[in-house]
């Protein structure tokens, strides 16, 4: 079985109405695959996800997360803490349909600068749109169970560390 290592982030900013989080709408809806290898159906018209991507050779996961956040959302952010890892297996829909074991490390980031959705044209192959959504709604709006869990972890961290 092949292995893939990815990293991504929950990027938050404090607004007068409360915390907001950066979410992306992938260009193409990937087949969601559960840990048992079965496809997960989603009734959402718009699939929302966290920014994430493969860790490049020689890159640390937290560096990849910073890069992926910037590439997929258009914003820069400061690392706050690691939230955890998601582990799952899926079957590639391209090439030889290999089975892949994937680990995605997620980090909490605090927004620093930039305009959401101000991304390079070549990233539009991957990301249809990036937007701010209320953090309190994120666990309900995101498509993937593991990412919903990362958002809940971010909320717990922010409640315990209001200085962020």
Topology:
Elements: E1 2-15, E2 18-26, E3 52-54, H1 61-73, E4 75-91, E5 99-114, E6 127-134, H2 135-141, H3 145-160
Parallel strand pairs: 1-5
Antiparallel strand pairs: 1-2, 1-3, 2-6, 4-5
Helix pairs in contact: 2-3
Please describe what this structure looks like.
The protein has three helices and six strands, in the order βββαβββαα. Strands 1, 2, 3, 4, 5 and 6 form a six-stranded mixed sheet that branches. It has one domain: Nucleoside Triphosphate Pyrophosphohydrolase, CATH 3.90.79. 22% of the residues lie in helices and 41% in strands. The protein is of the alpha+beta class. Strand 1 and strand 2 form a beta hairpin.
Q: What composes the largest sheet?
A: 6 strands, mixed
- The tally of strands reads 6
Q: How many alpha or pi helices? A: 3
Measured between the Cα atoms of the first and last residue, the distance is: 40 Å
CATH class: Alpha Beta
Order of helices and strands: EEEHEEEHH
Radius of gyration: 15 Å
**Helical content, roughly?**
10-25%
CATH homologous superfamily descriptor = Nucleoside Triphosphate Pyrophosphohydrolase
CATH architecture: Alpha-Beta Complex
CATH topology: Nucleoside Triphosphate Pyrophosphohydrolase
Strand content: 35-45%
Write down the overall geometry. Answer: globular
Q: What structural category characterises the helix and strand content?
A: alpha+beta
Quote the average pLDDT: 90
Domains, number: 1
Poorly predicted parts: 29-44
């Amino acid at each position: 079985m092949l292995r893939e290592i990815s990293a991504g982030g929950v990027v938050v900013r404090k607004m007068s109405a409360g915390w907001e989080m950066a979410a992306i709408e992938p260009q193409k809806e990937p087949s969601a695959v559960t840990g048992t290898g079965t496809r997960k159906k989603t009734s959402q018209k718009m699939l929302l996800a966290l920014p994430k991507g493969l860790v490049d050779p020689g890159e640390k996961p937290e560096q990849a997360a910073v890069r992926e956040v910037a590439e997929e959302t258009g914003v820069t952010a400061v690392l706050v803490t690691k939230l955890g890892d998601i582990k799952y297996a899926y079957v590639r829909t391209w090439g030889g349909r290999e089975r892949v074991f994937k680990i995605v490390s997620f980090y909490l980031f605090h927004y620093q600068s930039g305009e959401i959705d101000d991304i390079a044209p070549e990233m539009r192959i991957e990301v249809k749109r990036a937007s701010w959504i209320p953090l309190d709604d994120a666990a309900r709006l995101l498509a993937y169970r593991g990412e919903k869990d990362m958002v809940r972890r971010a909320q717990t961290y922010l409640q315990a560390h209001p200085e962020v």
